[in-house]
Amino acid sequence: MYWRLSNLYFWFFALLGAMLPYWSLYLEDRGFSYLQIAALMATIQLTKIVAPNVWGWLGDRTGQRVRLVRLGSVVGAICFTGVFLEPGFYGLMLVMLAFTFFWNAILPLYEVITLQGLGKDRARYGRVRLWGSVGFIASVALIGLILEYLPLEWLPAILMPLFLGIAVAAFCVPSRQGQIRPQVSPGGLRAIVLQSTVLAFFAMNFLLQLSHGAYYTFFSIHLESLGYDKFSVGLLWSLGVAAEIVLFIVMHRVFQRYSARAIAIGALVLTCLRWMLIAEYSADVPILVFAQLLHAASYGALHAVSVNYIHSYFGHQHHGQGQALYSGLTYGAGGAVGAWLSGLLVEWQGTALAFWGSAVAIGMALVIAAVWLRSPPGETPAPQ
User: Fold this and answer.
1) Which of 51, 128, 154, 197 is spaced 20 to 30 A from 77 at the CA atom?
2) What is the CATH code of the structural domain delimited by 2-179+187-372?
3) DSSP designation for 20
4) Residue 184: left if φ>0, alpha if ψ -120 to 50, beta else—which one?
5) Could you tell me if 180 and 63 are in contact, meaning their C-beta atoms sit under 8 angstroms apart?
6) In the chain, where are the structural domains located?
7) 8/201 Cα distance (integer angstroms)
8) Which PROSITE patterns does this chain map to (predicted)?
9) DSSP code of 327?
10) Three-state secondary structure along 240-257?
11) What whole-number distance in Å separates Cα of residue 298 and Cα of residue 138?
C-alpha cells in the first residue's frame, strides 16, 4: 500500500515540477506580456478556489474518492490537449481553466485517501509525500536538460507522458481506499471554520501562498534575467525540493519536539528571510543556494503543519471539505492574488520588487500567527 499511495504523488508533482519552472518561460517565448503571463499562471491557482470544494463535497457525500481522482486525471489530460491548437491569450486561458478544474481536484481528494489509508500511523505521511518531491526534482532536472537542446515550443508535448503517468497511478490505487462516507452533522462545518484559531490558520496560509505568487510566476524569469541558463534554473528549483525531502523524512521527529504553532512561526520567519535574500542577492550563487534550501521551511514545514491542523480540527466528518477549503482559500485564492499582484509589481519595477512584496505578506502572516494561532486540539505540549 505504501508504494501505491506514493506512486500518484510522484507523477502529480512531476507534472507540477514541469510546469512551475518552465511554463512561464514557455508563455514568455510565445510573446505574452508579463501581465498576461501573471494572469495565465494565476489561472492554475484560480480553479483551486472552486474545484477542490466541488470535488471535496462529492467525495464526502459519495465516498467514491478514488473514482473521482481517476476521473480528474483522465479528463484533465484530455482538456490539456487544447494547448496544441496554439490558441491566443483568451483561448489559452479557457484551456487552462478547463484542465486545471479537473487536475486541481486530484490532490485534495488524494490527501484524504492517503491519511485514511495510513490510519493511526499518520507520522508516516511525510515518508509517503516525499515521493512527490522526488518526482518534482526528477522532472525539473530532466526537463531543464531537455530544454537546453529543444526549443520551448516542445514543452506541451513533453508534459503529456506525465499526464499519462498520473492516470495510470490513479488506476493502481484500490477502489476501496477513501470510501468512508461519514454522516455529516448539519452546521458543524460552519462552527469549525468560525473558530478564531481556524480563521487565523486560513489567513496565515492565504498570505503564505500570496507570497509564493512571485516565486511560482517569475522566479525562472528572474534568474534568466541575471544570466542563469535553463539547466541551472532547473537545478535551483530542484535544490529547494531536495531540502523539502530531507525535512519530510525527519518531520515526525520535529513534531515530537516542537508544537505545531512553534513550527509554523519559525517557518514563517525563515520564509520572510528567503524572499528578502532572493530579492537582493540572487546574483550571488552561495546566498541563492541558501535561500533555496529554505524551501524546506516555506513549503515543507508549513504544509506538514497545515495537514496536521486540517486533520485535527475538521476530523473525519468534514475532512474532505476542510482539505478543499484549505486548498481553495490558500493555494487557490492566495496563489491567484499573489500571481496577479506580482505581475503588477514586475511590470512596474521588476522582479526584485515582487519578492520584497512577498516578504511584506509574510510579515503580516507572522503577526496573525503570533497573536491568534493556537496549536491543534489534543496536541501534547512539546518542550521548547
Assistant:
1) 128
2) 1.20.1250.20
3) T
4) beta
5) yes
6) 2-179+187-372
7) 28
8) MFS
9) I
10) HHHHHHHHHHHHHHHHHH
11) 21
Output b/e per residue, 186-220; b: 16+ Cβ within 10 A: eeebeebbeeeebebbbbbbbbbbbbbbbbbbbbb
Confirm if 351 and 176 have CB atoms less than 8 A apart: no
- Nearest by Cα to 357 from 211, 244, 226, 237: 211
**Cα R_g (the chain), whole angstroms:** 20
Closest to 174 in 3D by CA, of 114, 131, 103: 114
CB 370: neighbour CB atoms within 10 A? 14
CA–CA dist 74, 249 (Å, integer): 31
Smallest CA-to-CA distance from 107 within 183, 213, 16, 43 is with 16
Q: What is the rounded average pLDDT of the residues 183-189?
A: 55
Whether 320 and 384 have beta carbons less than 8 Å apart is answered as no
Picking from 1-5, 235-239, 336-340, which range would have the lowest pLDDT averaged per residue?
1-5
d(CA 250, CA 124): 10
The residue to which cell 471554520 is assigned: 193
Q: Cell numbers of 285, please?
A: 550563487
Q: Which of 216, 234, 105, 218 is nearest to 166 (CA)?
A: 105
State pTM to two decimals.
0.79
**Integer angstrom CA distances of residue 84 from 14, 125, 154:** 20, 37, 10
pLDDT in tens, 278-298: 999 999 999 999 999 999 999
**From the CB of residue 88, how many other CB atoms can be counted at a distance below 10 Å?**
9
Q: In 10 A of CB 161, how many CB atoms?
A: 12
First to last CA, the chain: 36
Residue from 239, 285, 247, 281 nearest 266 by CA: 247
- Per the prediction, the chain carries an average pLDDT of 86
CA 105 – CA 53 distance, rounded (Å)? 8
What is the C-alpha to C-alpha distance for residues 73 and 105, in angstroms, rounded to an integer?
9
